[in-house]
Amino acid sequence: MRRLIFRLGIAFIVGLFGLISYFTTVSENPVTGEKQRIQLSPRQEVVIGLQARGQMAAQHGGLYQDKALQGYISQVGEGIVKKSAASGSPYPFEFYLLSDPRTVNAFALPGGQIFLTLAMLRRLNTEAQLAGVLGHEIGHVVGRHGAEHLAKQKLGVALVNAVGIAASDDAQSGRQAALFAQAINQMVSLKYGREDELESDRLGFRFMTQAGYNPRGIVELMQVLNSIRQGGQPPEFFSTHPNPSNRIEQLQSLIAKTYPNGIPANLQEGRERFARNLKRQR
């Protein structure tokens, strides 16, 4: 009985410490103004992104060996950052094109490392669509979604450990309890992931239009990805970017609300500029 009480006491302390650490570590996002539960500094996010950069690139065939095309991707991405509210974030953004010709995907690491695959690039037709991809990924970085996810994972690990300690006398039930707790933690993370996607859509819309791009580009991007999904196997983008069924509708609603008198003529699609830079890849 004493062992059980001692075990439950240790489990309670471990779980309580995890909860206190998570709920009392709050910072305000300088761009979005959102209060966030994050346990990393921006500098730590940058370090994590730089450490993971090589491994992430290697998983998709490494960097695409065309300096001119790499320069074009960087130019578009850096232009979005410099001309938008994203310039107020503390991250040194870098943009990379990966050699993978089959996996349709784009992703961002904490701290500003942003990637898209050659397969994704080949699905696009305008610079505004490219700006939609990059703007969305910039939104993940500025929104600090990776850091939020890591904080939730840390809380989840603390709770899983607490459950394991409390049930440790019966090894089988302890493992089952731990697995159950992990499953709950994953479901919570998935829910927030979907919210992150919608916020990144909104931020991407904001950043790309501030940089002078027609917002139809991000809607067309989602339509392209949906057409791939309906044609057979879903693009990898949807495994890392959950796809709410009303995502396109929400973007169209955002356009209508932002531009009730129509999209301004000075917001560009950049179709010819995009075609010139990708001519060798068609």
From TrEMBL:
One protein family per Pfam: Peptidase_M48
Residues annotated as domain Peptidase M48? 69-253
What molecular function does GO assign, one term? metal ion binding
Swiss-Prot/TrEMBL keywords: Hydrolase, Metal-binding, Metalloprotease, Protease, Zinc
Gene Ontology annotations for the cellular component aspect, listed alphabetically? membrane
GO term, biological process aspect, one: proteolysis involved in protein catabolic process
Per its Swiss-Prot or TrEMBL entry, what cofactor is needed?
Zn(2+)
Instruction: Give the transmembrane ranges.
Output: none
Q: How is the cofactor bound?
A: Binds 1 zinc ion per subunit.
Similarity comment: Belongs to the peptidase M48 family.
Designated name of the protein: Peptidase family M48
> In which organism is this protein found?
Moorena producens 3L
Upper lineage is: Bacteria, Bacillati, Cyanobacteriota, Cyanophyceae, Coleofasciculales
